């Protein structure tokens, strides 16, 4: 999608494909270029044939509806996800729609800054100076075990629970949303995608396609390659390329982004707190004794008690 004349710094492309193994497509994508940058969303629906597609479409529509009417701010992006969550949760209360939900990853490009909101295991990547980095952390059972040091990346790829999502829009009345901010540099390329792409192609392939092709061609090639590798799931891709000339502006939320060389995790409260994702350490894996110590002690106590009682009552009675 070419940028409007007032936003020539950005070029984007959005594609979605059912893949090779599924007849229906429960993914949804959106791209809306604005004078300040644009709104870009990927959603991967869950549930039955109709409900999964509906959840993804509602997420994309509601997020874009809220954002296009608002001035870019982290709080507004969070509110957009909360609105989408409420609408999907309400729709899921109908008997025929039980279990509906969706992942959602949104990029609100407010040049020279980028705001990213994320729920589920659809991802946001950044290609900067030829190097690809994953901006979001998957909300999935296996990803959380990898962060805890209980699974390796390779084990997670083949685990039987690799598709179990721990956070989604519409599953509960309230939702936990990850918020990130990035100071954009000339030549940056953002990639949003569902796990139908990231779960099939390696990062080096994603980087190669983004480095060597403009957004339209990159999106087409990525979907083609995912299908060539089996296309086991729906595939959605949004590619957003930033040109060499971007405005040098500031925003009320921008000071922490100005001082960081990478993505910044945003936490909203009465005052906005920031924690750089570059220095945040993963949770320390709990030791065997920390995880199972109390249960082992309880088991030993029960065995001891059982032995005492058995000894007491198994003695022969005196004549």
UniProtKB/TrEMBL annotation:
It comes from the Bacteria. InterPro entries: PP2C, PPM-type-like_dom_sf, PPM-type_phosphatase-like_dom. Residues 1-25 are annotated as: Disordered. One of its GO terms (molecular function) is protein serine/threonine phosphatase activity. Its EC number is 3.1.3.16. SMART domains: PP2C_SIG, PP2Cc. It holds the Pfam family PP2C_2. Residues 11-242 form the PPM-type phosphatase domain. The chain crosses the membrane at residues 292-310. Keywords: Hydrolase, Membrane, Transmembrane, Transmembrane helix. This is Protein serine/threonine phosphatase. The lineage of its organism: Bacteria, Thermotogati, Deinococcota, Deinococci, Thermales.
